[in-house]
């Protein structure tokens, strides 16, 4: 029995996103979509931007094209490396949840947003549960 690789959309292809693309490739995950607001990275191949030395066949799209990326990618997970606050990440998290795609973010506030962005966190939680997926925060905390 063979297991298929985890299918990933990388949202944010800056320094952290590039590190994740390389790490995911090394660990056997399949990059199936890439999104970034930076014009210098858009329309380029994610593998080349991430410094893999070869193309992956995954073009980096503008966030305005994210709906199409999610529709076509059939992803399992979206990794969000863009901003720090839940309000800044709300739309990408909503989009992932609407498509039933699990989302994880390195945004700091998402580590425990229930006290700082309670209403928005409750909204995102309801949306994720309704679409049978998860939203997880894993950002670096300054308490460490």
Report on this model:
- With 144 residues, the chain is an alpha/beta fold.
- 35% of the residues lie in helices and 17% in strands.
- The chain is built from five helices and six strands; from the N terminus they run βαβαβαβαβαβ.
- It has helices spanning 15-27, 46-49, 66-73, 86-98, 118-130; strands at residues 7-11, 30-35, 60-61, 77-80, 102-105, 135-137.
- The protein has a six-stranded parallel sheet, sandwiched between helices.
- The chain is globular.
- The termini are far apart.
- 37% of the residues are buried.
- The mean pLDDT is 93.
Give a nutshell description of this structure.
By secondary structure, the chain is an alpha/beta fold. The chain contains five helices and six strands, in the order βαβαβαβαβαβ.
First-to-last CA distance: 42 Å
Helical segment count? 5
The helix fraction, in percent, is: 25-40%
Instruction: Kindly report the spatial arrangement of strands forming the biggest sheet.
Output: 3-2-1-4-5-6
Using only C-alpha atoms, the radius of gyration works out to 15 Å
Main sheet summary:
6 strands, parallel
* Overall average pLDDT: 93
């Amino acid at each position: 029995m063979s297991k298929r690789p985890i299918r990933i959309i990388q949202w944010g292809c800056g320094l952290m996103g590039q590190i994740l693309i390389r790490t995911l490739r090394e660990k056997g995950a399949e990059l199936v979509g890439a999104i970034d607001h930076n014009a210098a990275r858009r329309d380029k191949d994610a593998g080349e931007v991430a410094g893999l030395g070869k193309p992956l066949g995954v073009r980096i799209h503008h966030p305005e094209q994210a709906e199409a990326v999610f529709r076509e990618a059939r992803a399992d997970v979206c990794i969000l490396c863009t901003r720090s606050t839940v309000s800044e990440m709300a739309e990408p998290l909503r989009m992932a949840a609407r498509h039933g795609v699990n989302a994880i973010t390195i945004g700091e506030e998402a580590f425990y947003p229930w006290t700082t962005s309670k209403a928005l966190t409750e909204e995102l939680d309801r949306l994720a549960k309704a679409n049978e997926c998860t939203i997880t925060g894993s950002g670096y905390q300054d308490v460490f």
